[in-house]
Amino acid sequence: GAVVSQHPSRVICKSGTSVKIECRSLDFQATTMFWYRQFPKKSLMLMATSNEGSKATYEQGVEKDKFLINHASLTLSTLTVTSAHPEDSSFYICSAPSGQGRTDTQYFGPGTRLTVL
Amino acid sequence: AQSVAQPEDQVNVAEGNPLTVKCTYSVSGNPYLFWYVQYPNRGLQFLLKYITGDNLVKGSYGFEAEFNKSQTSFHLKKPSALVSDSALYFCAVRDSSSGGYNKLIFGAGTRLAVHP
To answer: Residues B21, B6: contact at Cβ < 8 Å?
Structure first.
């Protein structure tokens, strides 16, 4: 199956700083990637859809100025959490569909654990 | 509204016994259904999907799922559970209102605990 990586796997930062998380599709190209947030023992909450070459599409209630998304190439999307606060602490997961068809499988990265002190 | 329901927070089964993790869905149009598994502090791993064709879909690690249109269900099954199957399982359906995007709607997840 297709492989998606994330970096870093774990990050601890101070309140008020910014943190960048990278999502890469290693063996396929992805014009679209998705960013999710997962709280402990909870399901995934879709935050935004990252689009190569254009602006990201954010879900209702997600602050686009706080969670900056850049889809720099066909294999890389980044999520920057700006001015992080303790309530931003969470597990962030990205995914990418293996193709552009409606039935294509989404492959997920291993996730990034963010802890804001 | 489109949705996915996993009615059981946790399923307990003894090693060697068959297991079933339940999933029902509500979606307009043809459902594209997926099962994923998540191990602690890891991302989701794809298990199997139903797009069309045979109602019984076989996937990774010996798992299979049965699509039942009349009951709008897509239950995950395995004939003989392993302790290593213990994990969090998510059922998902493609959001048919997402246009060209492959947005997924996830269920709440079911924790499977397989006891020796």
So the answer is: yes
Phi/psi of residue B91, each to 5°? -100, 145
Residue with tokens 């009615």: B7
Look up residue B9 and give its two tokens. Answer: 């927070």
Q: What are phi and psi of B84, to 5 degrees?
A: -70, -10
To probe the interface with A, which of B38, B102, B103 has the most A CB atoms within 10 Å?
B102
**Could you please report the per-residue DSSP string of B26-42?**
E-SSS--EEEEEE-TT-
pLDDT in tens, chain B (116 residues): 789 999 999 999 999 999 999 999 998 888 999 999 999 888 899 999 999 889 999 999 999 999 999 999 999 999 999 999 999 999 999 887 776 667 899 999 999 999 99
Residue A1 confidence class, pLDDT cut points 50, 70, 90: low
Residue whose C-alpha is closest to residue A92's, from B14, B41, B70: B41
In this structure, are residues B85 and B112 in contact, taking their beta carbons and an 8 Å threshold? yes
Q: What is the DSSP letter of A59?
A: P
Check residue A105 and report its DSSP letter. P
Residues of A with CB under 8 A from a CB of B: 1, 4, 6, 32, 34, 42-44, 46, 49, 57, 91, 93, 95, 97, 100, 102-111, 113
Alpha helix (H) residue ranges in B24-103: none
- Among B52, B5, B55, B7, which Cα is nearest to B32's? B52
Q: In angstroms, rounded to a whole number, what is the distance separating the alpha carbons of residues A104 and B51?
A: 9
